[in-house]
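Figure S7 source data.
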Amino acid sequence: MLIAVTSLTLIATCLGLILGIAARRFHVEPPELVSELEAMLPGSQCGQCGFPGCNGAAEALADGLAPVTLCPPGGPALALALADKLGVQVELGAMGEREPTIAAVREDICIGCTKCFKECPTDAIHGAMKQMHSVMKEACTGCGKCAEICPTEAVTLVPVAATLGNWRWREPAFA
Amino acid sequence: MIGNHSLERLRPTIPFQAAMLALTVMLASAALGLADRATRQPIADAVAADTRTSLAQVLPTDSYDNDPTDDVIDARDGDVPVAVHVARKGGVPTAVVIATRARGYGGEIGLVVGISRGERVLGVRITRHAETPGLGDKIEIAKSDWVTSFAGRHLADPEPAKWAVRKDGGAFDQFAGATITPRAVVAAVKRSLELYRREHATWFALRKPS
Amino acid sequence: MSEVLILLLSTALVNNVVLVKFLGLCPFLGVSRKLDAAIGMGLATTFVLTLASAASWMLEQWLLEPFGLGYLRIVSFILVIAAAVQFVELAMRKFSPELHQVLGIYLPLITTNCAVLGVALLNVQQGSDFLHALLYGLGSAAGFTLVMAMFAGVRERLELAAVPASFSGAPIALITAGLLSLAFMGFSGLRLD
Amino acid sequence: MGFRDLIADFKLQWGVHPDGHKSLTSERPIESMPLPERLVLPLAQHIGAPARPVVAPGERVLRGQRLAEPVGMVSSAVHAPTSGRIADIGDYPVPHPSGLAAAALVLLPDGLDEPVAFEPCEDPHSLEADEIARRVAAGGVVGLGGATFPAAVKLGLGKRNPVHTLLLNGGECEPYLSCDDRTMRERPQAVVDGARLMARALGAQAVVIGIERNKPAAIAAVQLAASGHPEVSVRALPVRYPMGSEKQLVAYLTGVEVPAGGLSAEVGVVVHNVGTAAEVSRVLRTGEPLTHRALTVSGAAISRPANLRVAIGTSVADIIAHCGGVRRDVARYVMGGPMMGMLLPGTDVPVVKGSSGVLSLTSEEAGGGSASACIRCARCAGVCPIGLQPFEMAARIRAGRAEAAVDLGLKDCIGCGSCAYTCPAKIPLSHYFSYAKGSLAAAERSRLKNESIKKLTAARSERLAREAREKAEAAARRKAEREAAKRRAAEAAAGEAAEERREVPQVSA
Amino acid sequence: MSDYRKILRDGLWDNNMIAGQLLAMCPAMAVTASATNGLGMGLATTAVLVASNTLVSSVRHLVPSAVRIPIFIVLIASLVTLVDLSLNAWLHELYKVLGLFIALIVVNCGILGRAESFASKSKLAHSAVDGLAMGIGFTLMMVAIGAVREVLGSGTLFAQASLLLGPAFAFLELKLFDGGALLMVLPPGGFLVLGGLLAAKRALEAGRQRRGVVVAQSA
Amino acid sequence: MTTPVHAPHAHDGGSVGRVMRLVMLALLPVTLWGFYLFGWPAIWLWLITVGSAMLFELVCLRVSGRGGPTILRDGSAALAGWLLALTLPPWSPWWIAVIGSFVAICIAKHAYGGLGQNPFNPAMVARVALLISFPLEMTQWVAPAPLFSGTGPDAIEALERLLFSSPIPDALTSATLLGHVKTEASRGVDLLASVPSFGAAAADGIGRHAGSIGETGSWLILAGGLFLISRRVIGWHVPVAVLAGLCVPAMLAHGLDPAHHLSARHHLFAGAAMLGAFFIATDLVTSPATVTGRLLYGLAIGFLSWVIRSFAGFPEGFAFAVLLMNACVPIIDRFTRPRIYGHGATDGRAA
Ligand SMILES: Cc1cc2nc3c(=O)[nH]c(=O)nc-3n(C[C@H](O)[C@H](O)[C@H](O)COP(=O)(O)O)c2cc1C
Ligand SMILES: Cc1cc2nc3c(=O)[nH]c(=O)nc-3n(C[C@H](O)[C@H](O)[C@H](O)COP(=O)(O)O)c2cc1C
Ligand SMILES: Cc1cc2nc3c(=O)[nH]c(=O)nc-3n(C[C@H](O)[C@H](O)[C@H](O)COP(=O)(O)O)c2cc1C
Ligand SMILES: Cc1cc2nc3c(=O)[nH]c(=O)nc-3n(C[C@H](O)[C@H](O)[C@H](O)CO)c2cc1C
Ligand code: SF4
Ligand code: SF4
Ligand code: SF4
Ligand code: SF4
Ligand code: FES
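Tokens for the predicted iron/sulfur cluster complex:
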């Protein structure tokens, strides 16, 4: 009995010491995953992911609470990059191959209130007070904030026009 | 008790960690030591009771007045170690129970063979086995009464060549789809009878060291 | 030499720890989605298993057996195993973060990988000598790694298969494990001597 | 067929043997098709940037006049096939699987066929290499083998890499097509001449003309034409698809593989189509640009299969009408060959420089039927000329993992369609690969866009911060102003205030 | 209160040790050749689980993280040894049925998993209830697997239940038919049956979800 | 806008159904021979197995919503059932056939998503599952009782015995060679005595001995296999490798110790080696996709069969060997990927 208690206690003490020292010796800082993830996100803070901006999205991603396909502006490319970073599999199907859209301003209705101009996270809308506003195709992410805020519903989201340049084969239908 | 605050400070230190582990192990081993002490006797009793029950199954109740569990001789059957329990009535050996082993399909089969002074099988029971459920486990009395087919047999009944399963031209049934297990049991019973014939004189000559 | 080989083969194939002895199933199912991870896990387990076999043999021979402390067997074995695993984990995190990321939460679970304690206990039960204990650990670990790799290979392929929704993931993995174990039954009764 | 060829043939593992259907047209000489009433000339008939129009709607143009000029390094000019009036410059249906319209010039011929003044060359073999390339470029010549790479750009490759051999591709391994065959039989001198000129431009010492063994007459004709030129040799090729693919041709004829993602020039070889060679010879000798091409009109549904020389811009409908229309139900109109050609959404599209055939296929010819699951027979892998495993790639693409398919060599796929042709499960394998390549390109575009968006967002936050700062400053300024005004109001008269207010900014700044 | 409801739901269904987390697979495969064995193992495991969760939760503030796993596992191992010794001494018949499997409880990774992921972070009462819920969920799955394997494999149900639970439970023992597919009581059968059960669980949930959607739409 | 159709606009006309029908055609001779040898029970058993396989296929397709009977025409289910039937003891009861079909089609095939998705050979999964589940029924062999010879039951009698699972009269039972020598060996009788006591029929390849319906007519199997190779349905690699993997070690061991190791000839003709090599190991879905891979796979199957036959508890190990190697196929495929044109060696190596 005594032997049992002492010998095991002795072993445990040694192991405890070794582990304690090892824990200290081999200590590594946890990687700044959240900030790295945030840096990968578009940073347009558009909220389409359902989180309060990219930071929230990054935290949710780091905690595994959100799928890597969460960010529509980022598109499949971002999803793949995130999946790679987090070491998970992506179901790109989940991105739903959403038709990409961009904002378009209807000249006849736009009153030039500049609300959309102020709202746009990427400065894709140009225009001045009381003047027709217009959308820069290259900068618009199709987030729809402008359409939401426009008092006259002059801004609508329209599918990006198909051209020979951006046309591509669709996935073959399969049984 | 240590205050929460000082605990926070202590926790990351190495000696504290080692001490905690040691403490846990100390308490655990102490608790187990006590438990071992408390259970040692009951366990021994339970095991003995077990043996007694299985011996009782292969010995007629009126054939002994000693405790064959304790009246045991360690012997060898070839390279198989066996335990020979001697049943006595009024100090006179009336029967033995040979606890032996056979090599079955799934591993070792433990069995007890009760043998009367007249070299007849009093009974056979399986004490442990790892045969396939549904196939080889029909040697258990709980599953089938196959083992009872040994009762009353002796080395001349059936004739020695027929001490085998039917498939091998013998007198004992095998189970459908499992020949290895019964073959092993039949062989072990036969070996026990032969061992008894060879050795019983020696065994009975040994006085039980009461 | 050939005896060593036979022992290794029979522990790895005939009495495969995972498929026949039913030990170490959780990592078998958990870390088998990717072939690389599975092989990594197999190697980590091999290391721990061999270490544990040796350590527990020493504990048994030099402490538990001589002093009749059989009731402390489980506690002492597991203590040593747990400490070894944790040490490996800490070291791995420092020296091979990639491997650490892949093996992730499963490293601590090697502690409770039944295979490790199971093999240590079986060694004691069989009364093996030191070399046999070591070989037994090694063979078991090789068997573990082998089936992990085969299973992971099949599972990688399943990721591409049109598995029906109610079967995809864990159910089909289990069925696959079942069929793998069915295949391994072919080795039952294998005698090389 | 020499011993070496025998060995080489035996070692060839890949490829398929589709029914050639060549006899439909191979004995029909190339006939000139009369000018249609309207020509539609797309600005992008080549790989690279679309050409820029240099004429205006309403303008009268002459045959051979340059209508659009090349833009940038890789581009090609467009010339008028005849004289007439430019009716419009706008979006018109072009041969493209999407059926989308793209920028094109519409030329209404006036029937006079009045040419511009050409600049013929008596002895092009005396021209400098650069001058040959310049004239080929000026002639708007692009590869006629299908890839429509501007021929002059390829002739410049000799500058960067030493090119030792020019290979002429007379494979014409696509079923039905026989226009290259006819060209070689009818204009062997032009083929050999063009090849020698291009070899000169490239600085190549040797010309090897590879012709599939199923065109014995072409082999004989070209051999005869080449007999006076020791640097030109003719080699017979085994009959299998896609023998005419550049990489396969290079490997077969030179024993060297073109490195992945690289150009054949990196191993000292440049490949041109035989038709391209014939056109180069004509362009250099007559000075007339590329405005017509030979093509095969075939398929079981066409009334009169033929080889035609047509003005580029002629509509498919006109060509079919010229060949007597169709005599059976047409399942698919295909431009090019059946293995790689594109399905035409309609017949109202023009023929372009790269069009080698117009096929009217019945449903029996087109094959098809619904796809079933892959049975992993690996036939597709067996026939792939690149050594890919199409079923593995397709499985990954279906699972949404195009990246994984890239690891298996998706980017090396030449899109030859052999795999889909032979797949018993009728899986549209090459469609999967086009789809995946498209997705990857789109992903790349979206990645680029993301990057620029990020910059824009950063710029915006900077702007917002700046504006906030300015606002705050302005507010502070106004506050100071107000206070100053108050102070002054208390002190002085109202009339002086206007002047002093202008000074305030200077004070606060 | 809803805390406890969630803990219970987790243990019994959503996050069931076997069906949800795929932990504790070894006993789930090795001991379930019959429903009775499954039940016995389940009960013994539940006992250890409740005790270990309680113990771990109560010492959680004292335990430094570097040695946390060794400490937890030593606690669990001691508990298991205690159970083992006591059963052997005082419930010997039961011990003979479960004997071999009890030592296995130590390395049942579900128990350490619970200690790590729940008990070491939660207060005492929650941990105890969690242990109970997890244990019951585990037991139910064990019985389910055992029952299916036993019925298909040997045509009986709860054979030898009276040995485990006492003669009063002899009524549970059913004999449905002779023979059966031996495969089911052998190693592969365990995997196949659990795979089938999980697929059934999936189908059930999917069906419920679909019905839920339909109801929501018609409402 | 119509969806564009991608090239190629031509097809060689093959189809999955055609592949399956060719395999069935190749199986026909040996099947008919099996019918002749083992009589009406074998015919009924074949019908029930194939029928129930197709029925289960239909049910699974319906349940998974993947289209109805038209897809049955691909013939894969019928073929799987057919092959399973050929590997069963000829006089097995009906439920063996039905359970076998269920395991093959519903578990081994459709749980994985149906045709082409299954990693394990369905017929072999079913055979092994049956063997292990019902060792008694699966080792009840009969001596050939040819049709019209009057030894076997007539059509009605045969159906009755199938449906009521009547035990086979002792006079008709017979062991297979492999089973016989294994039993004898377990009693300590070596091959020098046990092989001659079995009779010569086992090694002539004609098949007038006990065995499963389709495994005994070795020459007919060979003919069917060669037909498939000539039609390019299967390559030569797997069959040749399987037979080599089995025969080479068998010859070596037999040469060294004829008392304990069967000759290569017996290994070839006595069990499932022929049927397995040409029709089972060659299953496209479950075998590797590269030439190197197929050679490796075949060699390993042959070798494992020999190991299991010679050393393990079962007399025959072909099905186990196939399943074991099925599990290795993904790894084999991964490590035997062909070199891609233009990658790696670029100098002097033609495609
Ligand atoms: C899964 C499995 C379990 C088996 N279990 C036993 C067993 O418990 N006992 C036994 O004698 N044979 C067992 N066998 C062995 C075979 O059934 C063996 O072929 C048989 O014993 C030979 O006897 P037979 O001559 O009646 O066929 C088992 C076989 C298998 C496949
Ligand atoms: C699959 C495939 C098949 C081809 N077949 C031919 C062919 O038969 N004849 C041909 O001239 N070019 C063929 N090509 C195009 C050649 O690869 C190459 O681009 C062409 O010969 C270059 O000559 P050009 O630039 O003069 O067109 C094929 C390409 C591919 C990918
Ligand atoms: C393709 C094929 C595979 C087979 N695989 C096995 C097997 O793995 N195990 C087995 O016992 N029998 C298998 N059989 C049945 C045996 O080949 C057979 O009938 C043999 O001689 C065994 O009989 P026994 O078990 O009575 O010795 C297979 C049959 C075929 C046609
Ligand atoms: C050459 C060849 C061999 C086949 N062998 C088998 C076989 O052994 N077992 C089987 O179930 N199906 C076999 N099939 C049919 C088919 O591939 C099988 O049903 C699939 O495994 C089901 O996905 C075979 C098919 C072919 C073409
Ligand atoms: S959707 Fe994307 S860009 Fe928008 S807030 Fe979320 S993470 Fe940021
Ligand atoms: S949708 Fe509107 S707000 Fe959003 S990026 Fe485009 S223009 Fe800006
Ligand atoms: S299309 Fe691509 S994958 Fe298919 S055969 Fe041609 S090169 Fe190979
Ligand atoms: S040819 Fe078709 S069925 Fe065969 S492996 Fe390739 S994709 Fe699969
Ligand atoms: S219970 Fe999880 S590994 Fe054994």
